[in-house]
Amino acid sequence: MAELFARTAQTVAFIAFYDDVQFAVRKITSGHRVILTYRLHFPTDNDIPLATLERKCLYDVKSLTIEITELLLDPGVLPEGGYLAFGLQNQYMSTSRSIVDVGSHLKGRDAMIACVLSSLSIPWSVRILYRNVGWTEFSFLADHIVDLSSHNEVRDLVETLESPEVVCFVGARGEPDRKRAKLDENVVGGKDATDIMLVSTRPSAWSFHSHYVAGGRDVMMGNLYGDVCIVAERPSLAMIRGGRDQKNGGLDNS
Description:
Elements: H1 2-6, H2 50-55, H3 61-73, E1 82-87, H4 108-119, E2 124-133, E3 138-142, H5 157-160, E4 165-169, H6 185-188, E5 194-198, E6 207-214, E7 220-234, H7 237-253
Parallel strand pairs: 1-5, 4-5
Antiparallel strand pairs: 1-7, 2-3, 2-7, 3-4, 6-7
Helix pairs in contact: 3-4
């Protein structure tokens, strides 16, 4: 980069890049250096489209499209349906507790995953995947940052959370993933839990951790661990086959 600037006739040189780019700052031998740290947010109506990423060859969109398509077409992956969770590779800022709008401002590989899912007509959204650890153990999805610090004592977490969407970690073939977290059936009161599978091999770059006082027989400290993920819907095999049968039937009748 220094050689590039040396060949130009400009007296002021600058470079802007995403915060996930690896770079190094060396010792100044002459002149001055001014570093301005800032964050850019894309407006909702001016997001980077998939075609732009492909033209600029910024990311390997085609290979990711193939990978996600193969995952969705695999009959062994979540045969009963559920969610696929892609951990974010970048951190973001939210002006409120809600993270719904973050989906319109994704960048880097996160934006590529979202674009690929949209191109395949797969419903997706940015949500927080919470794991409750240390009292009763279960996991749930939320559209906002959960903060229980204002509660003196939480006796019924499900009631306090106002009936959250409970999920259960599973492996690629739908088997329970006990390494992630376990589902306490006594907590959810018979509520069906939706299967969710982590697609990313590493944790999300944007996460939350909070404490709260858990009441009951014994008062103890509860912990909420939240990972912000791109959550994509995976229909069950029965729904997929039913849709195909309807489509084929419609074609035959025509």
